[in-house]
Amino acid sequence: MFTSKPIGFVSSPYKQTSEIPKGLGAKHNAEGALKILAEFELGLTDIEGFSHLIVLWEFDRADGFQLLGTPPSDNRQHGVFATRSPRRPNPIGLTIVELLGREGAVLRVRGVDMLDETPILDIKPYLSNIPAENLRRGWLGEAEARGRQGT
Amino acid sequence: MFTSKPIGFVSSPYKQTSEIPKGLGAKHNAEGALKILAEFELGLTDIEGFSHLIVLWEFDRADGFQLLGTPPSDNRQHGVFATRSPRRPNPIGLTIVELLGREGAVLRVRGVDMLDETPILDIKPYLSNIPAENLRRGWLGEAEARGRQGT
To answer: What is the pTM of this model?
Structure first.
């Protein structure tokens, strides 16, 4: 067993799961903030230079886990590790946000898809891409293709 | 406080930290495996369709944390949240690997940079890129530029 504790909390316009855009073509342009605890502020040194950050956070309001589930972007079941479902064995979420600005221990960001007051576990710089021509997106690419065909 | 437990373990050629390529221009092409515990195998359903996976794992051999540190890719100090240092408040690592194949609960992958027997916390599909023209890489871009100039 490993333990983790919040390094801060998300400030998000979403108070309930139902408000978060989901499914195929969902856009995450909501602005919010990462409010880092004062004791960890020194760890943000030089973060302003990065345009995008990887945020790891706890699905603190998820209820247990489910190894197979039907995501909002498809009408078929998939394994939890092939989806972004909150109901994971270790309920850790990952969001890539655009860093808009920093005021002390508060990072203003675009692209939040977490609930308000979600505990933040870690922040990492987003460094590199997989070239698009090397990327395959499995069932999600197939679901998108079916959606375009209206099936 | 949140708790997490391994969903499996990494099989890696690296037995010691000193063997892992580090610093500017380090290439991570090592092949290895993600050995998922039998109880979670059902969660891998459909994962074969994805070319790349995000692996979250525990830096189980890291020793405490340091809010400021000098990464192997630079000779200047940066905040821990602007680096990939193992010495983080919550020692969770993130690696993007290429999925080469699956045999039951074992995923053969390329791009491991973890130590052998590292505990795996989660696997997520890698879905999208930030367009290269929108990406700024902060101190790392600057360190690379200084390296090219030999300074």
So the answer is: 0.93
